[in-house]
Amino acid sequence: MPITEKPIIEVRNLTRRYRDRVAIEDLSFTVGEGELLGFLGPNGAGKSTTMKVLTGFLPPSEGSVKVAGFDVSTHPMEVKRRIGYLPETPPLYPELTVHGYLAFVAALKQVPGRAVKAEVARVAGLTGVDDVMGRVLQNLSKGYQQRVGIAQALLGSPPVLILDEPTEGLDPVQRADLRALIRSLAGRHTVLLSTHILPEVTVTCEKVLILHQGRVVAHDAIDRLAKSHGQAEHASLEEVFIKLTAA
Ligand SMILES: Nc1ncnc2c1ncn2[C@@H]1O[C@H](COP(=O)(O)OP(=O)(O)OP(=O)(O)O)[C@@H](O)[C@H]1O
Q1: Ligand 1: which of 48, 86, 168 to mutate, judged by most atoms within 8 Å of the beta carbon?
Q2: Residue whose CA is at the smallest distance from ligand 1 atom 7
Q3: Fold (CATH) for 7-82+159-245
């Protein structure tokens, strides 16, 4: 990353415990404006916990998180306004139509009443759900449901998008479509993308952060990762990942 890149997410010495279980410990990293960062780690590494603290859904036990200069502990609303979040399980209301749901979330996000129609149409166009606006959510394919999940995250045009395993459970075509969509959002938004599918990261992201047992074990450009972790230059992301997360 060029040193001049302006950080929009700043995580300092962040620890989060669930009672006496340490989920993430002493994490420090920054994410630059417009970056698309792959957020990786084996099951239980602490990805979802980190994302929940970043989005203000869980308070930190120690340390600090700033988004666009606002501290999540002291200015949670300012932070939430700047983040679009797609949790691992998207909060869809199965009986609502796509349009009804997006209008409902727009109201929750305090999009002014007169702007809701245009804003819903904008995110529907970006995510390619405009042809299913009248359909009930529970009848949509998983691929379309994930698109609606991303559409709700985009409402209000937050500068940061946090997407927790958005391609999980999709077929290869739906996955490729969604990947293209996510790539198209980078630049205009800073995107944190958590996934288990490493080849997907290689084609979608330039940088990755790898968590293992609640700690950062790598944070680098993919093309520098192998070298900076003492492995053969041609080693794949998968090989580096397995090496760093064994044990
Ligand atoms: N609500 C909770 N109460 C207690 N422990 C929890 C809770 N949520 C997560 N944990 C624990 O915290 C650790 C990190 O979990 P987290 O869900 O953040 O990992 P993850 O990397 O997102 O995993 P996955 O890839 O399986 O979704 C794990 O040991 C998990 O069991």
Answers
A1: 48
A2: 18
A3: Rossmann fold (3.40.50)
ipTM over 0.85: yes
**From the alpha carbon of 48, which atom of ligand 1 is closest?**
22
CA-45 nearest atom, ligand 1: 21
- Predicted confidence (pLDDT) per residue in 51-61, tens digit: 999 999 999 99
CB 208 within 8 A of CB 220: yes
Instruction: Please list every protein residue whose CB sits less than 6 Å from any atom of ligand 1.
Output: 18, 21, 23, 41, 43-49
CA distances from 161 to 5, 96, 139 (A): 18, 24, 26
pLDDT in tens, 176-219: 888 888 888 888 899 999 988 888 898 889 899 999 999 999 99
Question: What are the residues whose beta carbons fall under 8 Å from the beta carbon of 229, sequence distance 6 or more?
Answer: 218, 240, 243, 244
